[in-house]
């Protein structure tokens, strides 16, 4: 019974992530037959990251990497089945994982630094640096998670 609120939290997270992925898929003019799969991959990826962070206690960067590995693998599979480019599914499904909050905090911190006297910027500068590093690490995890399945799964015939 204690898991019911967490399960509802993850399902709500999956719903809103699916909606975000679906919205971007529609914005990018993804074919109608692929919209469901874009939304589903976005929901599964973000719900997995939320479960790993909030439920298991994993740090957000490796959790994002695992979620993007699942998205990348699912996108490769759907692309093969539907005979479409995998990017259609990969990009739209990974958009809900983009670290907007960290980037926003980093930019606000940079603007705040501009008006501070030199002697008092140590703590705000650490805050900005942390948010910039987290933004870069999360973007790197997203890219690595999306690219890894292509590198590991794709078996191209050698050119003779």
What this model shows, in words?
The protein has one domain. The relative contact order is 0.13. It is globular and about 60 Å long. It is 80% helix and 0% strand. By secondary structure, it is mainly alpha-helical. Helix 1 packs across helix 4.
Question: What topology does this entry show?
Answer:
Blueprint: H1 3-27, H2 32-56, H3 60-82, H4 87-94, H5 100-114, H6 122-153
Keywords, separated by commas or semicolons:
mainly alpha, 160 residues
Helix content: over 70%
Backbone structural class = mainly alpha
Globally, the shape reads globular
Low-confidence stretches: none
> Termini separation (Å)?
61 Å
Q: Kindly estimate the percentage of residues that lie in beta strands according to DSSP.
A: under 5%
**Major pleated sheet:** none
Number of domains: 1
Number of strands: 0
Radius of gyration: 19 Å
The number of helices is 6
The helix/strand series, from N terminus to C terminus, equals: HHHHHH
Overall average residue pLDDT: 91
State the gist of this model.
The protein has 160 residues and is mostly helical.
């Amino acid at each position: 019974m204690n898991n019911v609120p967490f399960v509802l939290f993850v399902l709500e997270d999956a719903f809103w992530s699916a909606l975000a992925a679906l919205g971007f898929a529609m914005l990018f003019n993804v074919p109608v037959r692929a919209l469901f799969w874009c939304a589903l991959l976005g929901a599964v990826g973000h719900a997995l990251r939320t479960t790993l962070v909030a439920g298991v206690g994993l740090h957000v960067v490796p959790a994002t990497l695992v979620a993007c590995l699942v998205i990348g693998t699912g996108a490769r599979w759907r692309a093969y089945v539907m005979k479409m480019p995998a990017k259609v599914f990969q990009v739209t499904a990974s958009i809900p994982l983009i670290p907007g909050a960290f980037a926003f905090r980093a930019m606000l911190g940079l603007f705040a630094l501009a008006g501070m006297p030199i002697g008092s910027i140590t703590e705000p500068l650490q805050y900005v640096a942390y948010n910039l590093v987290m933004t870069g690490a999360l973007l790197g995890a997203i890219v690595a998670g999306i690219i890894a399945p292509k590198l590991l799964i794709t078996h191209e015939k050698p050119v003779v």
